Amino acid sequence: MTSPASIRSPLALDAPPLLALEGLSIRFDMRDGQVHAVSDIDLSVKPGEVFALVGESGSGKSVTALSIMGLLPTPPAIVSGSIRFEGQDLTTLRNRAMSKIRGKEIGMVFQDPMSSLNPVHTVGKQIGESLRLHFGMNRRDAHGRAIELLDRVGIPDAASRASDHPHEFSGGMRQRAVIAMALACDPKLLIADEPTTALDVTVQSQIVQLIRDLQQERHMAVIWITHDLGVVAEIADRVAVMYGGRVMEQGSASDVYAATRHPYTSGLLRAIPGIDRSTATKLAEIPGTPTTIFAPLTACAFHHRCPMTEPGCTSSVPELMATDRPGHESSCIHHEELAAAGNIWLDDASTIQPDRSRSDDRVIVTVEDLKVHFPIRRRSGRARGTVRAVDGVNLEIHTGRTLGVVGESGCGKTTLGRTLVGLIEPTAGSIRVDGSDDDTHRTIQMIFQDPFSSMNPGMRVRDVIEEPLRILSMGSSGERESRVAELLEMVGLPTDAAERYPHEFSGGQRQRIAIARALAADPQVIVCDEPVSALDVSVQAQIVNLLRDIQDTHGLAFLFIAHDLAVVRHISDEVAVMYLGQIVERSSRDDLYREPLHPYTKALLAAVPVPDPSVSHSAAPLRGDLPSPSNPPSGCRFHTRCPVAVPGMCDTQPPPLLEVSSERWVACHLVGSDQPHKRPQTGGEQS
Amino acid sequence: MKRLDLSKLGQYVIVIIVAVTLNFALPRLMPGNPLALIAGVDVGLLTAEERAQIIEDVGLNEPILNQYADYWVSIATGDLGQSYRSGRPIKDIIAERLPWTLLLAGGALIISSFFGIILGAISAWRRGGKADVPLLTGMIALQSLPSFWLGMLLISVFAVNLGLLPSFGAISPAANYEGWEYFKDVLEHAILPIVTLSVLSTPGVYLTMRYSMLEVLGEDFIRTARAKGASERRVLFGHVTRNAIAPVVTFLAIRFAFSFGGAVIIETVFSYPGLGRLVFEAVSGRDFPVMQASFLVFTAAVLIANLIADLLYPILDPRTRAA
């Protein structure tokens, strides 16, 4: 066991740590072998600080959190080392003693607010449960306190909402309720495990702000577990970066971001398509994928993927070492070179990503006044309303170019994509595909979000890729076989992958298979529906770069749907912002990001977390959640959340989508109203 | 708000109409003379005058739509016709038999849900543990027992060999017990058939409960409850059970309705004077009017059981409440 990190950290000298993990290892003994989830880590959290644990899937961050709470199932989990909370070793406590600490001394917020509340109990009762358990409060007092807590976390009309069931709350509201529940007993430590990952960016910024406020108000320590370096920069005092069950680097947030001393951290930071970084170069890729550790480590966990690996990296497991900056530690034996050299993930000439010219493109898909409405059915099947998922959308897709579509979940972007491919029948309006009299399926193909569930697990990769060809009766079986080999090579997979099954591949590799499948029939347009959001950051960059390459070589048109504005910015030429089924702003990428015009676009951009702790963080730009698309607000649909809405105008008249300047369309009463040359976009106004 | 959805009620009405219409149409579609329905195999022995008389009596000479309308009227007024064999009103026969079947089916429902739910919960709570593996294997074995065999086995052990319990009937004939003695007599006669039915129903309840619990135990909100500091006991009773029980209730409702049909074999084995035995007697005696009426009662039982499940579900799972 190594000496605890806290002893070396000068910051820790003034206060004893609230929580200290010493030599913590967590192993899972499974039937078919061992998984070493966490290997001998030392971490400490001081009272009142926000400590971020950052890592990709399989890094061991969530397992670490669960072990602190004593929530790992044992067996199969085997925890060794110590977890000291206020000096007491939690690993030695029996379950009964541990349950007196859980919820009272340490509260926890989980990732998915949709599933982390019990559907059969009211929200108030679930919040009150902790109070009744730990403080022996009676039902009425607990209910009263639950209402106060709901009010504190920003639930409007808390007194009546406390009697509602979770399914009557929106996602953001549920996460607030979960936070209220975790804070009910005023814990000294709050563990937040990916608390904003399942939420929209606008709601995410509200939740980040809420937790930050609560943390300061109560002087509570927070362990914030996430894969998102952007959010971390907004909230963390100190950061530890984990990989393969080891701590790669830890230190103050500003040191880790600005004076990175580990190749993994710097690779991660460079792989993020920031909202303000140059789009002229490709994203830096970290080769390979995060792997599961099946045997005890004997080398640096990152050496497989590291550009600096040398024999010294594999001879032993490197421990955390002090760097040139106080309180900043790195486990890289090259940390001194890194301090001197700066960036090791060098951009070279081949990574230049040229901006595409518009001279030789042509319109391939024209969408006019497209409407897709779904009836809402009762359990009995009778309609009781209509969801206006897409409600009057006009757009054009050009060959060789990418149209990005962004918006919160529920804005209709996925429905739009699926309607284009023909998976959903439009209710009204037209989709014209230029120059193709044959099957639309051949011309427009789709890549789905989840590479795990979007592929039939019973089919070999070859059959998955070949299927579009067979459906469209293209080529002989020999031709199809060689086409599959060609496609696999194109997406960077070995040819022998054809005979294997999807479950043998990682998420990133599966998304490559999905790309190969989409390319098989030689389409002209590909609809990419959140193609990278289910992937790890280091893998995201690989897929984004691959998509760009394929687009350039094939002159493909992309409709790129995503909630991540930074990714959309990196890949798109033009961007459309959707709100409640309508496009509120559409313009070239650079214009939109440099100078957003619609208040909603402004709010979305302001909500994007910037992976730089030195940037000051404004208050959450938007309040509340997306209104229901079955009952959209009158007038401008955004007026209920708009900070500049003008009563009497915005809440009564729907603004048309007007071309306010060359190639810029905005649907807002307050934008371009003094422009003399405004004219409705071809294809009719939005209603 | 928790009123039953009107359109749901409409579905029940449709099922009733279809069932009654089928019941009306089937005998008329069957080959041969509909007379056979009333007179059974003896139809060939009747003289032409007797036939004409019966046709006249039952109204078979009227237009088909009138017959259909009359059929509805008679069902609505509770007139189910007369048994060809005994000549008694079928309404009276069913009224006499139904309580015995309800006693068996109800008793079995209570016993099998009690054991099924508790054992299923124990099994799932410690999945793969000391209790789970033998319970699971045992239940699957029980499920595959033929009901008549189990009934006969119980009779031979408890009635014949040990002589503890009566082997047939619902009450001791000609004993004329009253009060407590009567109750005891009824109970003694009901024990073996109820045990047989219960043993056959329990595995289904157990398996449904076990599966449903395992599903709920894997949910995120169970982890949330533990993170709140809830004890294992509280997690089990406060969070798991109520979520897990809803699918079991649906299963029980269906099971209850089907135990009416299952009673045919059990009641025959135990010579128990319930509806099932009535059906058996009607089939062996070609007493078509009685078979038809029993069919209607079975349909009604299925519908009522479903209705109860539909009414209970929103109470157990707030997500299914109409907004």
Descriptive keywords:
heterodimer; A: 687 residues; alpha/beta; Rossmann fold; eight-stranded mixed β-sheet; 30% helix; globular; disordered N terminus; disordered C terminus; B: 323 residues; mainly alpha; MetI-like fold; 2 domains; 12 helices; 74% helix
Summarize the structure.
Chain A has 687 residues and is of the alpha/beta class. Among the domains of chain A are: 18-105 and 187-341, Rossmann fold, CATH 3.40.50; 363-592, P-loop containing nucleotide triphosphate hydrolases (Rossmann fold), CATH 3.40.50. In chain A, α5 crosses α7 (171-183) and α16 (461-471) crosses α17.
Task: Give an overview of the whole structure.
The complex is a heterodimer of chains A (687) and B (323). With 687 residues, chain A is α/β, with parallel strands linked by helices. Among the domains of chain A are: 18-105 and 187-341, Rossmann fold (3-Layer(aba) Sandwich); 363-592, P-loop containing nucleotide triphosphate hydrolases (Rossmann fold), CATH 3.40.50.300. In chain A, 30% of the residues lie in helices and 22% in strands. Chain A has 22 helices and 23 strands. In chain A, the strands form 4 sheets. An 8-stranded mixed β-sheet of chain A has the order 6-7-8-3-9-10-12-11, with helices on both faces. In chain A, helix 16 runs parallel beside helix 18. Chain A is globular, with a radius of gyration of 26 Å. Mean pLDDT of chain A is 84; it is low at 1-13 and 674-687. The N and C termini of chain B lie close together (7 Å). Chain B has helices spanning 6-29, 35-39, 48-58, 64-76, 90-125, 132-143, 147-161, 179-217, 220-227, 232-269, 275-284, 288-316. By secondary structure, chain B is mainly α. Chain B is built from 12 helices and no strands. Helix content of chain B is 74%, strand content 0%. Chain B folds into 2 domains: 20-76, no CATH class; 98-320, MetI-like fold, CATH 1.10.3720. At the A-B interface, helix 3, helix 4 and helix 7 of A face helix 1, helix 9 and helix 10 of B.
